[in-house]
Amino acid sequence: MTRRVIHIDESPIRFEKWRRNLPQWLQRFLPSGGGKAEDHHGKGMFGFTVFLLSESLIFLSFILTYIALRLTHSRNWLPPGVSGLEVSTFVIINTIVLLSSSFVIQPAENALKRGRLNKFRWLWLITIVMGTYFVIGQIIEWHNLNFGLSTGLVGSTFYVLTGFHGLHVMTGVILQIIMLVRSFIPGNYNKGHFGASATTLFWHFVDIVWAFLFPLLYLWRV
Length: 222
Fold this sequence. Notes:
By secondary structure, the protein is an all-alpha fold. It has helices spanning 15-19, 24-27, 40-72, 89-100, 102-113, 117-144, 152-182, 194-219. It is elongated.
């Protein structure tokens, strides 16, 4: 007979007491039962959330640096001959596509939890297409801009911010492709769906970051 191992939570932070007072959607990011040994999904999501918080600090440092440079170099922000960024229809559509993808990937994850694989695959595939569309649109926009990476502060800050964010978008698309391929392996998600949940959370993070970057880069006029 297999002997049951009892896991004793030795953490100084009692997560379970906090979880009860949090909204249900937020409880998913903390391990349940004080960190039970069998709660691999809860502990995995908590660890992944900590990772995203560290990524948030990197983006925050970039954003604060951008704001400081804009405020201290407002008079000569745009070099001669550079018109800056325009809020074109193309940019607006690209932004809408990316932000809307969060409302597609979440139902996909919910479908996977309920065991509806076909619905998960179709919604997941749509999210992949939307993310790919955004990346291609970003590359097209870079190609048509009248300034480059070495064009003063406006060029270096814009390409660093959008490039770093674009790298995260491409990472999210790659993770989605991996999760989609894994869905065709028989019984792959029978024991859990941490990979899909973590990828969904990562995608929400990517969208939230762009919701801050878009007005900062495109709507803030000199």
